[in-house]
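Weekly puzzle thread! Below is a chain. First person to post its structure in token form gets bragging rights.
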Amino acid sequence: MKTHESANAAINAMLDSLADEYTFYRDESTTVEKRVLQQQTKVVDHKMLDGQVGYIHIATFNSVNCVPETARALIELKEARGIVLDLRDNWGGSIATTFDVFSLLANSGKFVTMKGTTDNLAYSEEMMLGVDSAISTLDGVRAEKQRLDNVAGQKPIVVLVDENTKSAAEMLAGALRDNGRATIVGARTYGKGIVQRVWEFPNNTSIKISSARYYLPGGAYIHRVGLMPDLFIDTSALQKVKNSGRTLARHSARGFKLSSSRHKLAGLIQAEQTSAGGRLSADSDEVSGTGRDRFLSEARMVLRRKLVSLAKP
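Winning reply:
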């Protein structure tokens, strides 16, 4: 092979033979784009609801700014009596970053166990949180480092998830629940229970290869299964309406004339939106929790019940 193009083609052919959707080659533009995303800011949104519920939405765990922005959100919401942690549409990211966010929310507990291969050798790694340290045990060898402080204290937490909550986001939700720190509300999550290693090369290309399975603290392996929330909200009908609405919007934007049946469908969509109590599209209001959001409403109700229970003598 005498050109980058022929080398890229050969690499892609080899990786495609593995038939793993999470193993792939990144060309120069994709690798550079990934680095840019790692520097992204404003990945955490927060606000106070009803004067007593702190709402935090984390968009991704890929950014190096995720942990400081989450810590800042928790500090600014220190007067909140409980926290709604919104992980909807979060596709995951760095496990180390996610573990640090876990540290901001919990006193102690197991975070995750990973079993896979590295350099052609099998390995097992467990990550857990001690009162004073973050602990990693690799093939029986224990290593400790200073942990981040628990900024959330003992405030009750409700985690919001949906079918787009994926990978490290599922890891965090499951770890919080398995350690008794949170209740999960929403739809069944995506179900990505494997992790990848990334090799970067001098010519600004990289390869991402699946290297391990991960297991939640309770032992569950969620790949292609997902997490079932404690309070399940059926979104199948709403998703169908969303998809229909997007199709209509695309047709309208392209100047297509709607048939009478399409007009009827538009009416049905409007009726479904009204019966659902608000917008169904993933607009900024819904993501930030300021719209009439069924998921968020249910989460707030669960949190209120927790607060009432804690207040009882």
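Puzzle host: Confirmed. Bonus trivia for everyone else. Residues 53 and 107 are 21 Å apart (CA to CA).
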